[in-house]
Amino acid sequence: MKILVTGGAGFIGSAVCRYLVQELGHCVVNLDKLTYAANLSSLAEIENNPLYAFEKVDICDRLELDRVFSSHQPDAVMHLAAESHVDRSITGAGEFIQTNVVGTMTMLEASRAYLAACTQNVAKAFRFLHVSTDEVYGELGETGLFSETTPYDPSSPYSASKAASDHLAKAWARTYDMPIVVSNCSNNYGPFHFPEKLIPLMILNALHGKDLPVYGDGSNVRDWLYVDDHARALFMILTKGRIGETYNVGGQNERTNLQVVERICSLVDELAAPLASGSRKDLIRFVQDRPGHDARYAIDAEKLRSELGWVAQENFESGLRKTVQWYLDHEAWWRPIIEHNYQGERLGLTKT
Ligand code: NAD
Ligand code: TYD
User: Is 158 among the catalytic positions?
Assistant: First the structure.
């Protein structure tokens, strides 16, 4: 297959590109605007592979999208390009609406025009996978799980923009009869994760003996999934998922934020040079909560398991250990980011 991956220079998109090229031997066209969150060095393993091509394009640029579709003639689209950080969306929502909403609509329209122009055989096999988040469902209380039929109730500008994009994808499937599938996944973690997100931020701060800022009292729960398990699920949904359907993806790894940070402290204490001042758990600081902070996310991925046979290969303990070790071994990847792009400053507080 030749697959057009949008956002392939980001955290999950780069894992998808590596998986498609290295493990499955498919052709990939990575279309990415290269925002602050992108990193072409995450693709170093495949950048010279003849199966891989890169296009620096903004998904809001219809003319450029038309050019990419007509020159590469993809068999499928995996649409991951997005502004993805909740805290940044609280500071400024504009880019989120532009990329996640307007950009998704532009991708859908460019795909529709491409489908109208291509041969019947290509059109019949074509699929568009819209990649989204479980945050569109809002927050859970102490019990219950998000299923594919949970009503949308987004809390943050980020999740609201993703919810809008999901509705657009589903509307384009119904109105224009387009072969679209939607996935909603829980929090990912793993190698090549930009260090503004909880897990990589805590690993690097712990390594450097810096404070570990836990929002509120640390009791918020996230359901963590190793990024390569997500990449495998996405390809399965793209190729085997039923058109017009939604599939939830999640790893049954619920943890409070405090549990996650404490486990990272133990792993860094074990795997890196010890801190003169003692255990890294002493670096934990409870800081002002995120506005609109969702209490708990947890996914019911039964549909994906029973219909498509997906199972996660990594559990949280094995995945987190691998991730900490990866950051310890890959300073060349994160050093330029913390020196030039992001120094760990607090994002997403509204003025009081
Ligand atoms: P990321 O922020 O690491 O990467 C996003 C990529 O999209 C970057 O390479 C960026 O340059 C690119 N991009 C942004 N705006 C663009 C534009 N206008 N045109 C072209 N490219 C653009 O994000 P991620 O964590 O890899 O998430 C990827 C997708 O998966 C997103 O759609 C996100 O909503 C979804 N998702 C993420 C998680 C998670 O835990 N990270 C969980 C579920 C779903
Ligand atoms: P994050 O990685 O931003 O993902 P999301 O907001 O999409 O779930 O945050 C994960 C959780 O960690 C979330 O409950 C907010 C919390 N958090 C902290 O406690 N401290 C931090 O410094 C960050 C970045 C997040």
Answer: yes
Whether residue 216 is contained in a domain is answered as: no
Q: Is the CB of 260 under 6 A from ligand 2?
A: no
Q: Which of 114, 137, 158, 247 is catalytic?
A: 158
pLDDT < 50 positions in the chain: none
Q: Where are the alpha helices (DSSP H) in the chain?
A: 11-18, 62-72, 86-91, 94-96, 104-117, 120-125, 157-176, 198-207, 227-240, 257-271, 302-308, 316-329, 331-336
Select from 88, 63, 69, 338 the least CA-distant residue to 203: 338
How many independent structural domains does the chain possess? 1
- A 10 A CB-CB count for 123 gives 14
pLDDT of residue 351: 72
Per-residue pLDDT reduced to its tens digit, 270-328: 999 999 889 999 999 999 999 999 999 999 999 999 999 999 999 999 999 999 999 99
The answer as to whether 166 is a domain residue is: yes
